[in-house]
Each structure stands twice: as C-alpha cells, then as structure tokens.
Amino acid sequence: MQIRPLSRDESVPMDLLLLADPSKEKVLAYVEAGACYAAFHEQDVIGVYVLLSLSQQTVEIMNVAVKESYQGKGIGKQLIRHAIAEAKAAGFQTIEIGTGNSSIQQLALYQKCGFRLSSIDRDFFLKHYDEPIFENGIQCMDMVRLSHTFQAD
Ligand code: COA
Predict the structure, then answer these.
(1) From atom 15 of ligand 1, which residue's Cα is the shortest distance away?
(2) What residues does each domain of the chain span?
(3) Could you list the residue ranges forming a coiled coil in this record (predicted)?
(4) Maximal C-alpha separation, the chain
(5) d(CA 75, CA 65)
C-alpha cells in the first residue's frame, strides 16, 4: 500500500470522504482549503485523509476513511500515523482531530495513535448537521476534540 498526497488535478475519493462526514458541502470546502492524501492498493484508492492547517502551529485531520471492504486491517491506523508524520515534518507543533461522542472505534483508534482528549464542543452535531446521526446505539451530539503535541527534538 502506498500513501501519497493527491495533486490538484486528481479527483478526490468523495465516496470515501462521505463515509466519515455526511456533509458533501463541508467536505468540498475543506478538501479545497486543505491537502488530501490517499492510500492506494495497486490503482485503487482504499483510504483517504485530509489535513487542514488551523494556524502556523496547528493542523487538523478533517477527515479519515477506509473503504469498507478494507476496514479492520490496520489501514486507518497507518493513515493516522502518516498524518502525524506529515504534520511533524511540515513543522507543526500540534495535530488535532474531532469525532462524535458516539464514535467509539474512532476514539479508541486516535488514542492508540497518541492523541489525548482536549475539549468537547457540545451540541456540535445538533447545530451543524440537518439529520440526526446514531452510532453504536448512541446519538451523536457532541464533538470530542483530541490533540497530539510533538515533543521538541
Ligand atoms: N472498539 C474499540 N476499538 C476498536 C473497535 C471497537 N469497536 N473497532 C476497531 N477498533 C480498533 C482496533 O482495535 C484497532 O486497533 P488495534 O490495531 O490496536 O487492534 C484500531 O481501532 C484501528 O483499526 P484499523 O483497522 O486501523 O481501522 P480501519 O482501517 O478500519 O479504519 C476508520 C478506521 C475509522 C478510518 C474506518 O473504520 C472508517 O473509514 N470508518 C468510516 C469513516 C469514519 O468514521 N471516519 C472517522 C470520522 S471521525
């Protein structure tokens, strides 16, 4: 598997991006403003993530997704580790990610990759998404924010 940035003239894997974020409008906005990386198995795109700088010091993983038939094989973890390495190499001090209170697997994955809980944006998903979202039998209402700060070398 190869992970690399997509160039501006390559199309983004919208089907995968929508697995992580049901708002096409929001996805298009941060893909345009940020950098989209894709994981390839031969010619197929099987994973994606998007990095967006929030300031000179901080960058956020706005979206991460793995094609359904490839999930559970460690690719999500490789994408998160790749994003962390890219952020560090680009000179950022902190990388952030946000997920839903109901996203149990994602909360586990991000903490396994070194992220720590930093804050909660209460009612984020109620305010910003038209349709109610349920996962693991839990309504997704609050955004849990996590961050990982790099040690000074
Ligand atoms: N509870 C706790 N941990 C779980 C879990 C669960 N129900 N399901 C998986 N995990 C853990 C695994 O244990 C694994 O850690 P390990 O390797 O130490 O065992 C870890 O999650 C990562 O698994 P991995 O195989 O790398 O994940 P993946 O390739 O399936 O990718 C997602 C993870 C979230 C990117 C993928 O499932 C996906 O695309 N989901 C839909 C889009 C999405 O929700 N994106 C995130 C939006 S915030």
Answers:
(1) 109
(2) 2-149
(3) none
(4) 45
(5) 9
DSSP 28-57: HHHHHHSEEEEEEETTEEEEEEEEEESSSS
Structure tokens at 74: 């460690």
Q: Which of 16, 23, 30, 77 to mutate to test the pocket of ligand 1 (most atoms within 8 A of CB)?
A: 77
Q: Is 73 left (phi over 0), alpha (psi -120 to 50) or beta?
A: alpha
Interatomic CA distance for residues 2 and 44, integer angstroms: 10
0.85 exceeded by pTM: yes
Structure tokens at 83: 């994003």
Is 109 a pocket residue for ligand 1 (Cβ < 6 Å)?
yes
d(CA 66, CA 41): 12
Q: In this predicted model, what pLDDT tens digit does every residue of 93-131 receive, in sequence order?
A: 999 999 999 999 999 999 999 999 999 999 999 999 889
